Amino acid sequence: MTLANQVVVLDFETTGLSPDNGDRAIEIGAVKLVDGQIVDTFQELINPGKRVNSFIEQYTGISNNMLKNAPTSKVVMGQFAKFIDGFNLVAHNASFDKKFLDAEFKHNKLHYTGQFACSLLLSRRISQDAPNHQLGTLVNYHQLPNDGVFHRALADATMTSHLWLHQLSLLQQQLPKHLITLDIINKISSLPKAQINRYYQTMAHQ
Fold first, then answer.
1. Whose CA is closest to 137, among 125, 150, 122?
2. Residues 6+ apart with CB under 8 A from 161
3. How far apart are CA 177 and CA 172, in angstroms?
């Protein structure tokens, strides 16, 4: 059984929006959760092999100067593959981070076995009253700890991990008899919003 409180929460900063357009990762941050506790973290800048534009420099605070002497994708992804071995993965807007993880791993002939879950999709189902579902908004809405730094990979991964654990506690209140697994989360994340309460009621009788 894949418990949802044993995951690696990750976040990429990148040169742009899509690896299909040749964009590359410039930073990765990740937080390892075991039994709902942060037990380890991972953070590395990655030299993308090309200059990043001024918008990305300003948005992330990661300059070309910082990336010049950063390790290559091959080095960082090799280390990261070991870090996530045996763990499922969580990200906020996971389709974005999964695309970049898949692309960087493919470049380096690496593989991972974990499945992804998305705290953004989950939030749309279980926090329907939130003003929007951006990470910063949800951190404020749920009054979660943060250090005021956004768009740096480890800071965002850490905030996402706090959000994730808060989401698990919200689900546990709705499903007190159940262990919250990744299967339950991915099921809820795929349901239309209007069916969430019915799903809770069905689960309550199981």
1. 150
2. 9, 31, 33, 38, 90
3. 8
Instruction: Quote the pLDDT of residue 171.
Output: 98
pTM tops 0.90, yes or no: yes
Angle at 2 between CA 140 and CA 28, to 5 degrees: 50
| 23-79 pLDDT tens trace | 999 999 999 999 999 999 999 999 999 999 999 999 999 999 999 999 999 999 999
List residues bridging with 37 in a β-sheet.
Answer: 34
Query: 41-74 burial, b if ≥16 CB within 10 A, otherwise e?
Result: bbbbbbbbeeebeeebbeebebebebbeebeebe
Question: Of 143, 138, 136, which is closest to residue 126 (Cα–Cα)?
Answer: 138
- pLDDT tens across 75-96, in order? 999 999 999 999 999 999 999 9
- Is residue 136 within 8 Å of residue 150, measured between CB atoms? yes
Q: Which two tokens stand for residue 194?
A: 């209007």
Residues with Cβ < 8 Å from 32, sequence gap 6 or more? 8, 38, 39, 40, 41, 42, 83, 87
